[in-house]
Amino acid sequence: MKTLKTSILFTLLIFILSCTKTEFDEFDVPSSGRADFSNYISIGSSFSQGFQDGGLHNEFNQQSNSYPAIIAKQMGVNFLQPLVQGEGSGYMHLAYINGKIEVIKVFDCEKNDNHPLAKTYDPSFLTWANKSLPYNNMAIAGLNVRNVIAFNPTDAITNFILFDSGTPNNELAWNCVAGEPINPYGRFLSFGTIGSPIDYINHIKDRKATFFTNWLGIQDAMGWANAGGDEVSGSSPLTPIAEFRAKYDALLDTLKLTATGGVCATVHDITKSPFFNTVTLEVLDKDIWIKEGADTNIIRKAVEGDLILLSSSSLLKTGVGLTQQDPLPHTEVLDKDEVAIVKNYINAINSEIRASTLAHGYFIVDLYQFMEQLNSNDGVDFDGISFSPEFIKGGLYSIDGVHPNQRGYAMIANEYIKIINQSYGSNLKPVAISDFRGITFP
Predict the structure, then answer these.
(1) What confidence tier does 1 reach under pLDDT thresholds 50, 70, 90?
(2) Taking 70 as the threshold, does the pLDDT of residue 235 lie above it?
(3) Does residue 440 lie within any of the structural domains?
């Protein structure tokens, strides 16, 4: 009798537990829903490649934990990335000096006042990646939408020189290293020869993706903005809107050949990142003189609405910008008129991203709105941790003030996962933000 009662109670307990639902039950059995994740690829620029601290480095799995890699892990699929070794291209870091924590900029070959602790590139960075491997992370730091495909011979030569051959006399060689292209971050792909160049879009076609994430468009705005509204070496102009749309369409046309599913992300307002909001008139508490515009001789005092770039800090320490005779150079300030240009440009390309994505039957991840939340002065809470856009202390951005740190990328991965689940009926589990590193302190 006692055995019978025990059996009945055990049966009832199993029944009760089977009817008890927790917030994690929907993720217990992974499902891709209507999506096919078997060959997932990521397309984008520095934010998608795992770039942070002003470089591509991996000594603490920074690049390994790119947001596409995080997504792929939750999908349960293989995701091959062209990973750099250790210090990679070199990067900014923090050092404890004379009782204070200081930001040490990455080594700059064109300057003779580099800090003794500045990190230059790992020797292996000149040979990293294997061009014969079918990588899933196809993102390239510095990749603009205009570089995706060449519509004319000038486009083709420009893209080839940018990513593969460098300039004839190495005037623009990356880090002053002879033989290096202007942009070395696409080394894992072959761009052909000067006489027979290969477009980036051809590599996308060859990957035969079944599913993709696409966060292109950031560089098209960021290159110009980070240079203070200047077209430095011709590599950072704002991509014309018509060209942007035509080449974005061409990319999605190519993906449509094999990818039955995918999501494209809008571009966030980069002017709200710490790079543009840390060195302020309020913090400096003094008059700052600036040169206005790339093609003018106007020198004036900075006013509210002008954004003094984080990179100007070293110049300000030497007294540059404190007098009308020695103003901050134009490339160190995004003046108020240029701020309006960048914001309007981002709105314009986001309209094209949305229209193109929907026309091709894919879905939108609105990272513009999501990053608005992250960049709020009130901050946000994830996993019981408070984050804000404040430089270093906020815990969201890396030391370059533009790119997120690992925790920031994990937040972005979760936003992608949420939209993928909503759009395709999948049940990918979000990641715990606390499982990832923030800024590395000395």
Answers:
(1) very low
(2) no
(3) no
The two beta strands, 298-301 and 307-308, are: unpaired
pLDDT-wise least confident of 21-30, 177-186, 263-272, 346-355 = 21-30
Which structural domain range is residue 393 located in?
Answer: 30-435
Is residue 261 within 8 Å of 267, Cβ to Cβ? no
277 within 8 A of 307, measured Cβ to Cβ = yes
Choice among 22-26, 40-44, 204-208, 276-280 with the minimum mean pLDDT: 22-26
Which of 194, 128, 137, 141 lies closest to 164 in space, CA to CA? Answer: 194
Q: Would you place residue 178 in the very low, low, confident or very high pLDDT band (cuts 50, 70, 90)?
A: confident
* Total domains present in the chain: 1
Domain membership flag for residue 60: yes
With respect to residue 13, please indicate whether it lies within any of the assigned structural domains: no
Handedness of CA 442, 118, 128, 55 (dihedral sign): positive
Residue of 270, 186, 263, 272 lying closest to 417 (CA atoms): 263
Which domain CATH number covers 106? 3.40.50.1110
pLDDT over threshold 60, residue 102? yes
The answer to whether the predicted template modeling score (pTM) of the entire model surpasses 0.90 is: yes
The answer to the question of residue 18 being in a domain is: no
